[in-house]
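User: Please predict structures.

Assistant: First:
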Amino acid sequence: MQCAKCGLEVPADAIYCPHCTGERKTTDRDVIRGGIKGGLIGLLIGLLPALVLLYIYGAERGIKAIAFITPFITFTTGLIIGLVKAKRDWK
């Protein structure tokens, strides 16, 4: 089997071309660091609309629930995106 990118021979059971990716391996520390970074960015992005909602509408029952769930959702999304991006950077 040949690599579509570099044209060199690739073992049939290989997921990635060893010639294009080199010997780099993703460490757990790199993946965790990417997840933490993504989670923090997501948390910051989620806190801004939550604070704006609380400022404009006050702590009404429905608004408070939306304001508290928004940072949680954006943190979780950022965490997942950060983990996936950190893993993909080493391909």
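Second:
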Amino acid sequence: MTLAWPWMLVLLPLPWFVRRWLPPTETGMTLCVPALADFAVSSDTAGPASAEAPRRIRPRGDLRIAACVWLLLILAAARPLGFGDPQQLPVSGRDLMIALDVSASMASRDLRLDGQPVERLDAARELARDFLQRRDGDRIGLIVFGSQAYLHTPLTYDLHAVQAALADTGVGLAGRETALGDAIALATRRLREFGDSSRVLLLLTDGANTAGTLTPAQAGWIARREGLRIHAVGIGAEHTPIVTGNGDRESNPSADLDEDALRKIAAQTGGTYRRATDSDALAAFYRLVDELEPADQGSAVVRPARELYPWPLALALILSTVPALRRIHRGAARPTA
């Protein structure tokens, strides 16, 4: 057992100091007692001797109980902690941030998932959840970016929380444009706090940098200086048939995707770039990240702590009722005239 706040023990002598240094309160000439039975003197002991040696009344029992109550209260305030059996937790030492584009173009329905056309964002979220299930032991966070970049979920070992955060994202959540450089800079700044670990950024986007303060080149230089690897994927089909009055023609829904910038960022930081023109290619990108950044399954031994303060607190509460119960008992036992 250990104490979380051992400095609370300095309050133990406080009642003694109060009694020692504060002047006594004026009570006048009145003596209040719970019962006259304590003052009864039998006829066998009555006489001059008893008058010369009057009985000294001091509630020592109540003082001892009050001291015990104070001791237990201070012990509870110091927060005693008990430790359970050692447990092993899987730890890989890898910190991985996902930066997900939620700009307006991510609403394009040019990808298919399970044979059904879906929005780019829906495909990225669904396949990201499958990816998270394979990263047990990693610390993962989520950044969403549009016109601005926001930290949606800080780095955590709770992968269920990250999956729930992914489900809460939506197109336009952070604006309709694409602040690609700011998203990289935000991930770099958040991962900088964990300099001793392997730091990785997964960048998922379907556009070019159209908003924000930093350009992708500037943000990539900062990421390289901080030792952050960036694996980027460009999302979106290359050609989509469109039926018009003049006949069928093809359009390129990913014309705004700046693949050159993404390739340079990935190469600059020691990462990789892939193009995902369909959901299969996007799933292949996640598998590639699993190969390049394996979740090295180590283990850390921890002993879970549990709070023990309710026990001394409950005992103090029980002891504090003893003087009151004794007075009630004496009052009930007092003889009536």
